[in-house]
Amino acid sequence: MRIFYVPEIADDLADVRDWYESRSDGLGGEFIRMAYAGFEELQEFPEKCEEVYGSLRRALMRRFPYSIYYHFSAGTITVYGVFHSSRDPQNVLKMLSIR
Q: I want to staple 72 with a disulfide (CB 3.0 to 4.6 A). Which of 4, 7, 12, 46 is the partner?
């Protein structure tokens, strides 16, 4: 299974990592590990999560209140965003639509 990431994913992850790291040493690294564990799980079970915005799916991360938004089609996963789960759904949709 191939997985692609929009360029903004790097900024999404770095911002959250830095925020957690400023709260507790090592917590930012743990966030990154959980994000990549989530990406790996998507590769194993890409249809596990329901579609929430058209064909975009949302996977909840473990241990952190974040969601991974992705599209799965023809053996390819494209990750479009990693956002805090308490974000306004309309703001999330707006951000996803420009990626």
A: 46
